[in-house]
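If you are new to this repository, start here. Below is one unmodified record pulled from the training split, so you can see the exact layout before writing a loader.
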Amino acid sequence: MATHCACAPNHHSFRVRPCHPLPFDVSGVKPSRYEFRVRGRLAERLLSSFDGFEAEVQPVETILSGSVADQAALHGVLAQIESLGLELLEVRQVDDRREPVSREGA
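And here is the target side for that same chain:
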């Protein structure tokens, strides 16, 4: 039986990867804080749909902010906004001071 490891000789053409990538370790993934700006002043009934999020209702928009566990959860929030018929104006990842997270050096 052939083994598949980095030290095994490569009998494939240059187009075939000799080894599979290592599995992604999700234990190191930390939740990120996001702000979702939607058009209009959301009523309490709609705000209750976003359990775990803080809401800042402004004259022309509502800012929902909170922790998002991972990319799947982020897509879940976006799908929820869409399913409620809300107009999404902006999404941004922020730090604890609500400053945008820098992508430099990433």
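Two things worth knowing about this chain: Helices lie at 44-47, 71-83. The mean pLDDT is 81.
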